[in-house]
Amino acid sequence: MKYIDHNKREFILSLILFLSFNLYFVFLVPNTSINYLLYLDFLIGIIYGIFIGIDSYLFVKREKKKQELLKSNELVCWEFSGLKESELIEHDIHVLQGQLHDQIILNDNLQDYITKWCHEVKLPLSASLLMLEKIENPSVKKPLKEQLEKINQQLNSALVGCKVQSNIYDLQVKPNNLSECVKTSIKNNQFFLIQNHFNLDIDVTESQVYTDKEWIVFVIDQLISNAIKYAKEPPILKIWSEENENSIFLYIEDHGEGISKEDIRRIYEKGYTGINRHNGKYKSTGMGLYMTHLIIEKLGHQIEAESKEGEYTRFKITFQDNRDYFNL
User: What is d(CA 171, CA 17) in angstroms, rounded to the nearest whole number?
Assistant: First the structure.
């Protein structure tokens, strides 16, 4: 049946040509013996039979190869040029779905491993911070605590990063006091704020916003961490909130190096660290703002950046009444 379908068009075309040739020979060629026509038809029949035989052989061979390929667990679409085989397409889709499923499982297992590893490392880290308090020599204590605090920040970033990039993530969205979220983030960064002698100007209302506290604190942490990293003398950090009938706005502003016009439209890209890489002054992975933007999108908020190079950088987070956004 497959072969008949395969040659149906060719057979009809050949029949039309054959009949046309015979009609032309009979009616339009005068004084010609019918034996010549029969002889030509015989030759044409032999040639056509040879063609059909070769084509049949190639078709059977192709079908046999296709059936063997359909049993494979690898992609096979490139084995046939001008692909029109729906069975092969379905086979490759099935293979790709299986490979994607396996890769998702591998990624989830890796994320679980990294998460557990971070929690395990946090135990000796917490013990080290407690033991550090017994050191009285400030010249030893201060640099050691700075490095331990940096490790703690990186572990927290890794933990949240595993959660936000996971295929299954648990959002705990509920009313949260915005001022408390900011205070928690300030506390998380207090060591570096104090060490760098930051002037803080905090004016955040006790407004309730629908968000996940852990994730929004991580976002604020990232923005404060950048403010600390790129600060200029005198270091200043301003955080304030505003609201209207529909939204609450949180602003985080530093008077640091700022962001160039060329960079600001790309700051949320994964791995992007700027055109001049801050002249090699800072080590940056380009992941902080990428993760920030990813979290903000998953929470249903918006984030905007405004900056003037050499003067300031201001981030604006917009919270809307999105309690129904997570019940869809």
Answer: 71
